[in-house]
Amino acid sequence: MKGLTFDTGGLIAIDKDDRKVLTLLARAKELGMRITIPSTALAQAMRNPARQARLSRLIRQPDTDLVKLDGPDATAVGRLLAQTKTADIVDAHVVVCAQRAGQPILTSDPSDLRILSPTLKLIQI
Questions:
Q1: Distance between CA atoms of 79 and 71, rounded to whole angstroms?
Q2: What is the model's pTM?
């Protein structure tokens, strides 16, 4: 495993002190793995940075990649949505980022992600 990609549910779990997620993060850091956070998922999860200290710290870490939805990714997301006949831009962006990084997705809702990529490794929290 090269690291972890977070979807919105995974990011929310950080601030809810989810022990499984915090343990996975600690293990990833210990092993020098990269953490990938799609900016679209961060936008759904971030509500009050002053009260979301763990999440705010995570996005500033040197081993965290905050991935913008730029032109090439927007095109890849749109193509994936068309191919799967779905509409959730955030989920599609998470899948595009995870596929590129070769990482599993930490998620609380695997069903929508399975539609977008049936073979992608998911870690359900």
A1: 12
A2: 0.95
The tens digit of pLDDT for each residue in 73-95 reads 999 999 999 999 999 999 999 99
CATH among 3.40.640.10, 3.20.20.10, 3.30.565.10, 3.40.50.1010 for 3-124 = 3.40.50.1010
CA-based radius of gyration for the chain? 14
Amino acid type, 43? A
Contacts 24+ apart (CB under 8 A), 46-52: 46/11, 51/15, 52/15
- Dump pLDDT digits (tens) for 27-69: 999 999 999 999 999 999 999 999 999 999 999 999 999 999 9
Distance CA 23, CA 25 (A): 5
CA distances from 88 to 16, 52, 79, 85, 113 (A): 24, 25, 12, 10, 10
